Amino acid sequence: MLCIALMAVMVAFLAVTSRVTVRTFERLEREAPLALFGKGPMEAVYSALEPFARGLAMLGVSANSITMASLVLAAVAALHFALGHFGVGALIACMSALADAVDGLVARQTRTANRFGRVLDTTVDRYVEALLLGGIAIRVHHDAWVLAVVLAAMVGGFMVSYASSMLRELDVPDPGSRMRRAERLTFLIAGATLVPLLAEAAPDVAPALQLSPLLAALAAIAVVGNVSAARRLLGAARSAPRPTSYEKTWPTSSQFLIQRESRSVGGTDERRRSPRARCDADTV
């Protein structure tokens, strides 16, 4: 029943947000639109969370504490995934994702956004995704093919993040990418939510087939994520500015002598000492 309620809320939410115009958010500008729905659902979520974030800011809750709360929730969700409780795990994972959205809103409300908070948020994002996929991997570790799909999805997510970092490092414009973090979490949570629904609708189905919605979501993350990352990295390699070329030149004899003389420091070179100085130095 919990999974049915969660799916009903998601469907109603998408139906409402597809017709309601909401304002844009700076953080969502770098996110790719969701397939079939665009950025409307993400913008609607941020709009709905703004009053909640404002209340937390008035209560004195810091953005960093919310970030750490999302990490704790992700660990609890991973534990439920590892135990096979995919419905409860999906609900807690959804709470973790919402907490990750709230921390940035609270930071802007309290004007406490800083470099440390940005580093903490980015680091926790990586751990959250690793925890969720790690919990699923523990659950399916007995099936090599299913485990390979989970690991491929993990690699795809990390490669998308790596490609974004590499484009910033090379100062290359980002053409946009599919399967960024918001889209990956949407696929993962939706797939995990459908697992118990399929189990209730078809209890006689083999356990491996009951995981098919989650495996389909993870396969999409793996394929689209890795292909998108490879495409962006190849594009960055082609369009990145080339390093300044130089020709290797050998020094002339006079330059060589000048360099050799400059290596002697404080008159310690034997050739630059007087005979008396060399004699005194030898007797020390």
TrEMBL record:
Transmembrane segments: 144-164, 185-202, 214-234
Disordered: annotated span: 261-284
InterPro entries, sorted: CDP-OH_P_trans, CDP-OH_PTrfase_TM_dom, CDP_ALCOHOL_P_TRANSF_CS
Keywords: Membrane, Transferase, Transmembrane, Transmembrane helix
Family: Belongs to the CDP-alcohol phosphatidyltransferase class-I family.
Name of this protein: CDP-alcohol phosphatidyltransferase family protein
Organism: Pendulispora albinea
Organism taxonomic ancestry: Bacteria, Pseudomonadati, Myxococcota, Myxococcia, Myxococcales
